[in-house]
Design a protein that fits this description.
The protein has 456 residues and is of the alpha+beta class. It has 17 helices and 14 strands. It has a four-stranded mixed beta sheet. It has a four-stranded antiparallel beta sheet with strand order 6-5-4-7, with helices on one face. A four-stranded antiparallel beta sheet has the order 9-8-12-13, with no helix packed on it. β12 and β13 form a beta hairpin. The radius of gyration is 26 Å and the shape is elongated. The model has no long low-confidence stretch (mean pLDDT 88).
Length: 456
């Protein structure tokens, strides 16, 4: 009995140390990041004990890749992100992960990344290549966004596809890069593809984003440049606006504002009741709130399995309010406001919602595996069976890992430039009236240029 008690307390202490969420375990570097100390945050990520675990290798590479990008180390950033890419391309199936998840919890398995995280890798790689003056490499990465989405959705059954099956932002980014490269024809195709995703919906929204007026103008402008006047007329009717041509000798700046930080994952619990069915050898496991029920076969003569209640953990997202909620740009005696381009907050929540029933199916397998083991052990040794029950209850946890250095949203402005030096003043404003001013010096060279700025 003393040994069993000792075992119970060891299990209790181990479970309590592992019940923290990834957000809590990353609080030190998160704090440095939100204070603007990117270099310090990167050093802390490299030292983080949780991220050093083999199963979290991909997550560590993602965090390092984003932080290195923010630090201006574009080659280093691509080194981390290329490593993640290589791991995903291997398409390895870890059979051991199924065993581990069923007997412990999903956070003990190798981190595979959310679908939108796999896609966003290519956005940062494209920017890295752009800043490294490798435009062809940047275009390849932008194209890979939609190829990645096709590959992701091919693995899901026809009736269970994710709503995140294409990305208007990906097409828009391709258009930016084609224009940087002087390829107006492919830029038009990319902008048109992006616009059609919005136009396919009556309210002209896509994944939580209204069609940006700048995108509408980019479709009309590139179509006009190419002499596609039927296309100009068609999209003027679709957009309910007239195209007004404008020439900018100094070129244009596409300024992307990465606002805030993506929601972090936490967990919530649902209670499942387990009731024996008379005359048959199984327990009916059900949760009325989720509307699910499934049987677990048991020994009908085992009185220890007559009735049971178990709490099952599921992941949820918690929002983080951005420090700066608004921003405007002034240059050459004109003011501009940002338009939303991508809403990672919306995408994160909707992709989790889309796979909710797949998560429930995994949870059902986990419940069945754990309970069958408990009942079998109780039949042999009641005390040890009780210890296993306690271990399973304490070790029940959702997977709270996610790429937490991603932005809450991407927003952009297309700014006409004068030839020569242009001072671009960005004024960020917070909910409590706090402000921050940044001035970029951009030399107008007659071409399209890209910059990304970030606030937390």
């Amino acid at each position: 009995m003393k040994k069993i008690q000792l075992l119970f307390f060891i299990i209790l202490s181990l479970a309590l140390t592992s019940c923290m969420s990834y957000y809590e375990m990353s609080s030190e570097y998160q704090s440095e990041l939100q204070s603007g100390n990117v270099d310090k945050a990167l050093k802390l990520v490299k030292k983080n004990k949780f991220l050093k675990k083999k199963r979290n290798h991909v997550l560590k590479l993602l965090e390092q890749g984003k932080l290195a990008h923010l630090n201006g180390d574009f080659k280093e950033s691509n080194g981390y992100l290329n490593s993640v890419d290589s791991i995903f391309e291997l398409k390895q199936k870890h059979v051991a992960d199924i065993f581990v998840e069923n007997f412990t919890n999903p956070e003990k398995t190798k981190y595979k990344a959310e679908d939108f995280e796999k896609v966003t890798i290519h956005y940062y790689k494209a920017l890295n290549y752009y800043y490294l003056n490798n435009i062809e490499g940047a275009i390849v990465e932008a194209k890979r966004i939609n190829l990645q989405l096709n590959e992701i959705n091919d693995k899901y059954p026809a009736d269970k596809k994710n709503r995140y099956k294409s990305d208007a932002f990906a097409h828009t980014l391709q258009g930016f890069l084609y224009e940087v490269n002087g390829d107006v024809n492919n830029a038009f195709i990319a902008y048109r593809n992006a616009a059609n995703l919005y136009l396919d919906n009556k309210d002209k929204t896509y994944l939580g984003v209204n069609i940006p007026p700048t995108l509408e103008n980019d479709v009309l402008r590139t179509a006009s440049q190419l002499g596609f006047y039927n296309e100009v007329s068609y999209f003027e009717k679709k957009f309910n606006r007239k195209f007004l041509s404008a020439r900018n000798k100094g070129g244009e700046l596409i300024l992307i504002w990465e606002k805030g930080l993506i929601p972090y994952k936490d967990q919530t619990y649902f209670t499942f009741h387990m009731v024996p069915q008379s005359g048959v050898n199984f327990l009916d496991v059900y949760n009325n709130d989720l509307g699910i029920s499934f049987p677990i076969p048991v020994d009908a003569n085992n009185k220890k399995s007559n009735y049971d209640v178990i709490n099952v953990a599921f992941a949820k997202y918690e929002s983080r309010a951005p420090y700066f909620s608004q921003a405007k740009v002034t240059t050459n005696n004109k003011s501009y406001t940002f338009e939303k381009l991508e809403d990672f907050d919306f995408i994160a929540r909707k992709t989790l919602e889309d796979r909710r029933f797949r998560e429930i199916a995994k949870a059902a397998a986990r419940i069945a595996t754990k309970k069958l083991a408990e009942y079998a052990l109780k039949k042999e040794n009641d005390n040890l069976g009780t210890v296993l029950t306690a271990f399973n209850a304490l070790n029940e946890k959702a997977d709270t890992r996610n790429w937490q250095t991603l932005p809450q949203s991407l927003n952009y402005i297309r700014i006409p430039l004068n030839t020569g030096k242009n001072n671009i003043k960005i004024t960020y404003t917070g909910a409590n009236g706090q402000t921050l001013e940044r001035v970029l010096e951009i030399v107008g060279n007659g071409r399209v240029q890209i910059r990304n700025e970030f606030t937390f």
